[in-house]
Amino acid sequence: MTEQGNNPKPYPALRNIQYSPMKEGEEHYIILWDPSGLSAEKLIIPLNLFYLFQFLDGEHSPEQIGVEYLKKYGEFLLPDKIDRLIADLDEKLFLEGERYEAAKAAALKAYREAPARKPRFAGKSYEADPQKLREQIAGFFTSKEGPSPDPSENQGKLIKGLVAPNYDVNVAGPLYAWAYKELREAEAPDVYILLGTAHAGLAEPVAVTDKDFESPLGVVPVNRPIMEYLRSKGGDAWFADELRHETEHSIEFQLPFLQETVGARQSISMVPVLTSFPPGCWIDPDLKDVADQVERFVSVLKDAIAASGRKVCLIAGANLAHIGLRYGDDKAPTDFSFHRCMQTDLEMLKHVENVDAQGFAEFLLKEQDRRHVLGFSAMYLLLRVIEAEKGEVLRYDREIVDQFNSTVTYASAAFF
Description:
single chain
């Protein structure tokens, strides 16, 4: 049931919008944004209005939302104020509806017509000038937080995979360098399966795109034989959400490191895959279809690699825990809670080192998503597909992301 034109629905439904608390003086606010990147807008609202967002579920009218406000705060919220809020959300593409669908269709058309996926974060999260970018990456390898200049113990071995952060390169660059030092000194294949975390979620468990990827250092082409195999065996379902690649950073952030460590000495190609599925899909009957799709993708990807006759390296761009108010916790992290989180992370990563995908999933199931490990799906796929006996965690670190001490953790690991 919709109104005419571009007006929002009489029962407005909020899209998958992210939010974060902020404070100015004694006043508390919430800032909202679109993690898919389709909308570049942000919206700052008072904390009391944010209470109403749980009722933007497609089942409450503006009048009913006003009643909920009255129940909570004991005072009326003028109808025109609710209407203005809903109209503002719709204008910013934060609501489901005709305006959002039209913008999504236009963006998908432009993406498919482009010759390559353009770098979205060059000049923001890393240097856009090629020479400055090369110097920046070199600096990550030599910084005091970077890897040792001594040769790797794995030097000359055939590398099978990496786990690297997908955090802002300007900040986490030395952590990337720990992983890519291993690649630089290894016997490196020329095909890379890049498994990225889809932060805005996906309609399907995976989203594959056949677009070449451009960075300031040049273009990395997709591997056409593997891509054609995936499409022939999986149909269009795995490509249906490829627009997510246009704005997602987790694969883009790997490219300059990959190009500098391997692409500078040999030709390379890639298979870009975004992922988003929970560890609970193997035990929740309501998620059986998701689990079945993941199993199907794992099987077909393995077959595609075998049919290509090529050696591949899998790279998972994946952060670990996300703790604090920004990520839905009811209190800010303390030094004690961070150290407890770190100990839990390192215990969890033992399953990654042991290439134990099932143990990794079961570990997170026992936690019941308390630490919001968003990189699970990318790391899980790596563990399922990789042909390695053992991995090694090389470095672990964290970043505080806001004034409330909200924290993201990440690690680098290599598999031989």
